[in-house]
Amino acid sequence: MMGKIRNLAFTIFSFLSLSLLSACSDSSDGDINIASDFENSRTYFSTSTSVELEVVYEPDAAPLTEDTFGGGIPIWGITQANIEEVFSDRPLPVFVNVPTSLSQMTQVPTQNKTRWTVEDILQFTDDFRRNRSSAIQTYFFVAFVNGIFVNNDGVEQPSTIGLNVTGTPICFIFKDVVSAGSSGDNNALVAFLEQSTLVHELGHAFGYVNNGIPLASDHWDEENGAHCTNENCVMFWLNEGVRNLTQFVEQYMDSGSLILYGEECILDAREYLP
Ligand SMILES: [Zn+2]
Ligand SMILES: [Zn+2]
């Protein structure tokens, strides 16, 4: 049983790792300015006093929300806690609001898509996003969809579990990829995987690593894009082999901490005072 779980965990972390690669190689085209004047790290970390998530999902791609973590904390409390940690101790206090139940998220019509190009992702966002950020109010857009990502060269990315369109607040999670890696009914593991993927992609949206939020210490994995050299940080580009997701979850739960970002990434945010 343990071996089965470990294999599963290994597969899932491979997915996560691969997703990090493609998430970061598929930036938006340089000549399309899809981010508004307020959708950048400088604004998030200077004038903004609230950070909220707008979450939408296709009917068959709803995120898991029923599981709890530790002492009855809703599973989406993981994302809430990680955002709070990034935006804590600011000169201006930042209010963080993450939905924790499906009733606080928005179901959109089935898109009947098996493949998503960057253009599709931007069109979907244009169709269904309701909130845009201002100087004082920040919204990140999170979509749970069916189908898989297709990169700018037209190559399908069946292992890409999530992505952030670089330089934008747009994060996508591909539920079919989550499901493919989670045969069986270990909902707690899937729920955790969704949360850790979301925390990772939001990290890119905030400006990690060295992609908007400047480095406070030497932990930028430059060879692998906007990622962290700390293997225990959710922003590490590859977390397979030495560790696997089961160990990661066990350690994470044993630690009693909700925070998936390593201390180096947290310090970057602390010391960023634009
Ligand atoms: Zn990444
Ligand atoms: Zn880190």
From TrEMBL:
Transmembrane segments: none
Signal peptide: 1-23
Presence of the UniProt keyword Signal in the record: yes
Keyword Signal: yes
GO molecular function: metallopeptidase activity
Top-level taxon of origin: Bacteria
PROSITE patterns tied to this protein: PROKAR_LIPOPROTEIN
Keywords from the named record: Signal
Gene3D superfamilies referenced in this protein's UniProt entry, alphabetically: Collagenase (Catalytic Domain)
UniProt-listed InterPro entries: MetalloPept_cat_dom_sf (IPR024079)
Protein name: Dual-action HEIGH metallo-peptidase
